[in-house]
Specification:
- By secondary structure, this protein is α+β, with helices and mostly antiparallel strands.
- The chain has a domain of about 450 residues: Alkaline Phosphatase, subunit A (3-Layer(aba) Sandwich), CATH 3.40.720.10.
- The protein is about 20% helix and about 25% strand.
- It is built from 20 helices and 44 strands.
- The strands form 13 sheets. Strands 8, 9, 10, 11 and 12 form a five-stranded antiparallel β-sheet that branches. Strands 37-38-32-39-40 form a five-stranded mixed β-sheet. Strands 3-31-30-29 form a four-stranded antiparallel β-sheet, with no helix packed on it.
- It is globular and about 85 Å long.
- The two termini are about 30 Å apart.
């Protein structure tokens, strides 16, 4: 068994087992970190099986909240994630695509699952009535609150749910017309008054709270949390805490404040407590004079005096201070949940970003505290409860490693038993599963060893931020003065390089062979074949954060799975919040479409999804370009973080920016940055994501500026370049005849080759490195892992003809760029990971490259060299015309990346390129196919003949 096969076995959910020693089974994550889920002595992990009819193996994902009953006997676990089941046509099956409340009896260990309650949608909110006779669940985008009562035998929903009666959420609607197209209202955190008579719920998408009379079962008041008059405040309310019967606290994430409400008489705002980070879940101590809140982006637990409504202290949750003494400021711990010990002397905080629980000792007054240790968990812990005797911690985690996704017929759903399975629920969000772990509270000695284990899992033991073998990077930094960082879209390793004559590729899963992607193949062949590289993000929604910041905030990790499941939450990433370009400096760039009271909708430049930089005054400035600018390097942006609304007249509410081959010549601006620091360093004539537009023309605009830089001898130190046509789409509207999957892939491939050729034959060929990555790998199959993708590196000092199978990730590549340029890391992940030293050699100074022209591009109207060019690679015409692809993707939304149903799109790609009805290869074995490549490829060719 090869090394990668072993990696899969250790990473698959089934291999985790229950009750086994996690310390002996460390699992590598696509973030580059490791987890040891059951390392604590006596820990027991169990996955969340909702017992769906006909699907006994199905497991739920993304548990987000836990709630322990007042008597301590019953634990509730609420999911808020993807949780979609696909039918044979890759369409979601509504009756099987729900969220869940798992009910456990925790008087025994492991807990006994008593019931699984299904609700259509939810978002974080779950709370018990004070007497324990009922509990409440927020209905997410259904804009309601569910009530469950104990009938003496089991829990039963008291119907109907209480409606909150919002017409829609705030922001710019994606489309005009039907009510279904409007932004959804989303019910989030909720809390019950001490007397059990009233409930308050945060309206996450409406910047308000609703007050409910539980006796009347109706809303009796609503408070708008925004200050109005164009002032920031009150946006994205999430957590709620009820103090007694007349006070409430609401955490508002975008504007980083805890809003204090008076609920006596007419409800109203009586205070705003500003926080450095984005406040999330909150709890009160028993006396209710102290409020505890987790704060993402400051990686802290905030302690608030609820009498004076002021912050007493903030405690860093990442690790004991001594463990990170040399690197105290890097962020990325992502605190997600919290709970108090029964004696209220210990605060437990789940760190989603470091897969751990911070154990915080509180002083007698609870106004000070410090981390005394860490407990390892499974991947991305979201919530924690503590048993009434303090002996057990109940922790839920959001994700598990995905493993291979070839589409084998396992865990499938089909309406008819005699039909072959089309998909096997192997979309990346379907493969990552949540779990509940019971961890016996460790004693002091065990806590010490567990703390060291967490440090090892997260590489905190690295002596400094510089690599151990820094010789090669000292060398590179002295010679390389420019980096071109190219981010592409959504392809797996097997999809593109599965047919390569070397490396661990599965040719059965290859959709874009050498003929369609000759430059991808030649770059991997000539320089370094990286066949064990993983995209850290699952999809573009969090993949672009990982690709530009080496991490995703908790807000992004929490909301994106629900967005992709169409559960109401927005695509609030890449500088756009609720469809609004919050990073714009000109009002005309910021406000588009029809907005009610536009001045009161997200005023200011706060970006709810943006990571902070290392220092305290670097709000939202945790991206790669921020670090380069802080180091006084020059940066130029081509297509990163752009407002795509300008390309659609429907979304824009006016004429769309025209499709022009040469907008610079026409003086027409086509780029509208969504990040404040990108405003002045973005090429205004470079068109960002638009599937109607060929990457060839993106290259030509990049080339126009490059030629000027050559003349002036001022090429920027860092260039961010987006070529995105390997996403595919908009087939009926695509220009220049680049309107099929094959021609779009070839166009993307040729543009990539042209960039390398241009640099190689210029004065900058001697001191420029090119790094190429996919932001995610969700739109394709891979026999090793759903995160495995292509990564390419070219330029001087890159090894020639090498296969490097070392485990690398998106974070590894960003760390490599940082070390080459000599800039500081962005956060915890890249600060404590080694760069890709194995890719480079000081002896490989000379290099050259000439772009290959995929012959299929000659079926288009792109202005290419003559077909007899020696650089051409022969290929057949497309398997289908544009009309085929347009018909198969009718109704798909290609206006931004991943706005479509990715499951269905993957099936369309497979059937269109492999043939209708061709089954996916079955079996998820993760075999190492790097051996005997010649015979493997020969046998596959014979089987096709």
């Amino acid at each position: 068994m090869g090394g990668m096969a072993l990696t899969f076995l250790l990473c698959s959910p089934a291999a985790l087992g229950q009750g086994k020693s996690g310390a002996a089974h460390a699992q590598k994550l696509p973030t580059g970190m490791s987890i040891t889920p059951e390392a604590a002595r006596g820990s027991k992990l169990q996955y969340l099986n909702p017992d769906l009819p006909g699907m006994p193996e199905y497991l739920a994902d993304h548990p987000i909240a836990t709630a322990l009953s007042p008597n301590g006997n019953t634990l509730l676990v609420l999911t808020s994630g993807y949780n979609r089941i696909s039918d044979i046509k890759a369409k979601s099956v509504p009756e099987l695509s729900n969220e869940y409340v798992f009910v456990y009896d925790v008087r025994q260990n492991p807990p006994a699952k008593l019931q699984v309650l299904q609700i259509a949608n939810s978002y974080m909110g779950i709370a018990w009535a004070p007497d324990g006779g009922k509990f409440f669940v927020s209905g997410g985008m259904d804009d309601n609150v569910h009530i469950f009562d104990w009938n003496g035998d089991h829990w039963l929903e008291s119907l109907p749910p209480i409606p909150l009666e919002h017409k829609s959420g705030l922001g710019i609607n994606d489309e005009e017309g039907t009510s279904e197209s409007k932004n959804k209202s989303v019910a989030a955190g909720l809390a019950v008054s001490a007397d059990g008579k009233r409930l308050i719920v945060a309206n996450n998408a409406n910047d308000s709270v609703s007050l409910i009379d539980l006796t009347q079962r109706k809303v009796i008041g609503e408070v708008d949390l925004r200050p109005g008059k164009g002032e920031p405040g009150g946006a994205y309310p999430y957590g709620v805490a009820f103090k007694g019967n007349d006070r409430a606290f609401v955490s508002c994430q975008r504007d980083r404040e805890i809003v204090v409400l008076n609920l006596n008489g007419t409800p109203g705002i009586i205070g705003r407590i500003k926080t450095r980070g984005q406040p999330g879940k909150m709890i009160l101590n028993s006396a209710q004079n102290i409020l505890f809140a987790v704060a993402d982006n400051s990686d802290s637990a905030v302690i608030v005096d609820t009498v004076k409504n002021r912050i007493l202290t903030e405690i860093k949750t990442t690790a004991p201070a001594a463990m990170l003494a040399r690197q105290p400021n890097f962020k990325g711990a992502n605190p997600t949940g919290l709970a108090l010990s029964p004696d209220e002397r210990t605060l437990y905080v789940t760190n989603g970003g470091t897969n751990s629980i911070a154990v915080i000792h509180l002083d007698h007054e609870s106004d000070e505290g410090h981390v005394v240790g860490l407990i390892p968990t499974a991947w991305y812990p979201n919530a924690i409860s503590v048993s009434h005797d303090g002996r057990s911690l109940y922790v839920v985690n959001a994700k598990s490693n995905a493993g291979p996704n070839p589409g084998g017929c396992r865990n499938n759903f089909a309406r008819s038993g005699d039909r072959p399975c089309a998909l096997a629920q192997q979309y990346v969000w379907q493969l990552e599963k949540g779990a509940l772990t019971v961890i016996p509270t460790p004693g002091p000695e065990e806590l010490k060893s567990l703390t060291l284990l967490v440090g090892n899992n997260n590489h905190f033991s690295m002596a400094s931020q510089r690599p151990v073998d820094n010789g090669i990077f000292t060398f590179l930094h002295s010679r390389i003065h420019h980096v071109i960082y190219i981010v592409k879209e959504n392809r797996t390793y097997d999809q593109v390089l599965g047919d390569l004559e070397k490396g661990n590729g599965d040719p059965r899963l290859n959709l874009f062979p050498d003929a369609l992607a000759p430059n991808h193949h030649e770059i991997a062949r000539r320089f370094v074949t990286l066949d064990n590289f993983y995209d850290s993000g699952e999809v573009s929604g969090n993949g672009w954060n990982w690709s530009t910041a080496a991490r995703a905030t908790d807000f992004v990790e929490r909301t994106i799975p629900m967005n992709y499941a169409d559960r109401g939450l927005g695509y609030d990433v890449e500088g756009v919040n609720r469809g609004i370009n919050v990073g714009a400096t000109r009002p005309e760039d910021r406000i588009h479409g029809k907005l009610e009271n536009p001045d009161d909708q997200l005023p200011g430049n706060g970006d709810v999804g943006a990571p902070d930089g290392p220092e305290e005054d670097e709000t939202g400035a945790g991206f790669l370009w921020d670090s380069a600018l802080r180091a006084h390097l020059t940066v130029r942006n081509y297509g990163f973080f752009s407002n795509l609304a300008h390309y659609s007249s429907t979304t824009l509410g006016g004429p769309a920016v025209p499709l022009l081959h040469d907008p610079a010549a026409a003086g027409v601006r086509v780029a509208f940055p969504t990040n404040p620091r990108l405003q002045d360093i973005t090429d205004p004539y470079f068109r960002s994501f638009d599937m109607r537009f060929a990457d060839y023309w993106r290259f030509k605009e990049w080339e126009r500026e490059f030629d000027e830089y050559v003349k002036r001898d001022n090429l920027p130190n860092l260039e961010l370049l987006r070529i995105c046509h390997d996403h595919f789409g908009n087939f009926s509207e695509a220009q220049d005849g680049v309107n099929t999957v094959e021609t779009m892939m070839a166009d993307n491939d040729y543009a990539l080759g042209l960039v390398l050729e241009k640099i190689a034959h210029s004065k900058y060929g001697k001191d420029t490195l090119i790094f190429v990555i996919e932001d995610d790998a969700q739109n394709g199959a891979d026999h090793v892992d759903a995160h495995r993708s292509i990564a390419l590196v070219a330029g001087p000092y890159v090894k020639h003809g090498a296969v490097v199978s070392q485990y690398f990730t998106t974070v590894s590549m960003l760390r490599t760029i940082e070390d080459v340029l000599g800039i500081k890391p962005l956060g915890l992940n890249d600060a404590f990971q080694l760069p890709m030293a194995a890719v480079f050699s000081a002896r490989e100074a000379a290099w050259t490259y000439t772009a290959r022209i995929p012959a299929i591009l000659h079926t288009t109207q792109l202005p290419l060299p003559a077909p007899n060019s020696t650089a051409q690679v022969q290929s057949s015409i497309p398997a289908h015309e544009a009309t085929y692809w347009a018909e198969k993707t009718k109704g798909f939304d290609f206006s931004t990346e991943d706005k479509l149903d990715s499951d269905s799109f993957n099936l369309v790609l497979w059937n269109g390129l492999k043939g209708e009805g061709t089954p996916y290869p079955s079996g998820r074995d993760g075999r190492n196919l790097s051996k005997h490549r010649r015979s493997l490829l020969r046998d596959l060719r014979k089987s096709k003949n």
